[in-house]
Design a protein that fits this description.
Blueprint: H1 11-15, E1 19-22, H2 27-31, E2 42-45, E3 51-53, E4 58-61, E5 65-69, E6 76-82, E7 88-92, E8 95-99
Antiparallel strand pairs: 1-4, 2-3, 2-8, 4-5, 5-6, 6-7
Length: about 110
């Protein structure tokens, strides 16, 4: 399969248990990617057109990656992987549009 998730039906896959949580679980990870509060990011699903905040998505989160799924149709919107270097990698899936607001201006 991929280095982030074992192939289905393997012993490794059977041993790996992903937590099913909402999109709020990966907000901290995305803080490293976006210069704004990740909870303000709006996603639009390419598959069904559903639109909403990142925090309202469904997320499968394990020790290696978090898979963000559309709550309406379950397509994978994006995958956020934890890199060995300590950073994150972002793979865009069925996201038709990702809108991150501008960072607040310093006064």
């Amino acid at each position: 399969m991929s280095p982030t998730h074992p192939a289905p039906g393997t012993a490794e896959a059977a041993a790996e248990v992903a937590r099913h949580v909402d999109g709020n679980a990966i907000l901290g990870m995305l803080t490293d990617v976006f210069a704004v509060d990740a909870s303000l990011i709006e996603l639009t699903c390419r598959a069904c057109g559903a639109n909403g905040p990142l925090g309202a998505t469904d997320v499968e989160d394990d020790r290696v990656a978090a898979i963000v799924r559309c709550r309406s149709c379950t397509h994978t919107l994006l995958t956020v992987s934890r890199a060995e270097s300590g950073g994150v990698q972002l793979a865009i899936g069925a996201v038709a549009l990702l809108v991150a607001p501008a960072p607040p201006s310093e006064s």
